[in-house]
Amino acid sequence: MNRNDTEGEANALQLLVGNLLPQDRKSFVLANFLTALGALPFGLGLAAAMLTRSFLILMLACVLGGTIFGPALCCLASALLVAILFSVFWPQLVLFRQSHLSRLRNCLFFFFPNFLRCLTAGLLQVAWWVLMLVLYPGSLLLLLFLSFWLILYWTYQILYPALNRVFQIEEKIAKTFPEQCM
After folding, report:
1. Which has the closest alpha carbon to 118: 91, 90, 80?
2. At what angle do helices 100-111 and 115-134 cross, to 10 degrees?
C-alpha cells in the first residue's frame, strides 16, 4: 500500500469521525429513541401476556405490536446482510489492492454462489452479538476476552474454503512469500 492510499484512508476516517458523526449525532439519537418507542407496545403486551398467562393477550400484542414495530425489525435482516458483506469485504481490504467499489462488487459475486456459507456465517455473527446483548451485564467479561476474535474465527472457518477457492489466497501468499510455504 502506498503512502497516498494510507493518507486517503486516514483523511476519510477523520472526515467521518471528525465531521459527519458530530453533525448527525442528533439524528442517530432520535432514530434510536423512535425505534425504542416503536417496540414499547410490543414489549408491554408481551409482558402483560406473560404475567397473565393469556394467549389472547399474546396474540393481540403480536398483531398490534408487530404492526408498529415490524418496520424496525427489518433492521435484523439489514444486520445479517451487513455481517455477510463485511465478512467478505475485510479480507479483501487486507489482501488486495483494489478500489472499494471493486471490493463491494467482489462481495456480491462471492455471495450468490456461496449463499449457504455466507448465510451461515452471517447468522452466526448476528446470533453471537444478540447473545452478547441479551447477557449484557454478565457478558462484559466474555466481551473482554472473546468478543471479536472468537466469532471471527468461527466465521472464517466457515468462509475460508470458499474465499480461498475464489480469491486464490494461499497461491498468492505462496508466490509473494515462498519461504512461508516450506
Report:
1. 80
2. 100
State the residue for C-alpha cell 449525532: 25
User: CA Rg, the chain, in Å?
Assistant: 21
Indicate the residue type of 44.
L
Residue owning grid cell 451487513: 82
Enclosing domain of residue 65: 3-181
Q: Is the dihedral of CA 156, 158, 161, 163 positive or negative?
A: negative
Domain count, the chain: 1
List the single range of 13-27, 83-97, 125-139 with lowest mean pLDDT: 13-27
CA 85, CA 65: separation in Å to the nearest integer? 30
Which amino acid, residue 72?
A
CA-CA distance, 23 to 33, in Å (whole number)?
A: 18
pTM of the shown model = 0.56
How many Cβ atoms from other residues are within 10 Å of residue 83's Cβ? 21
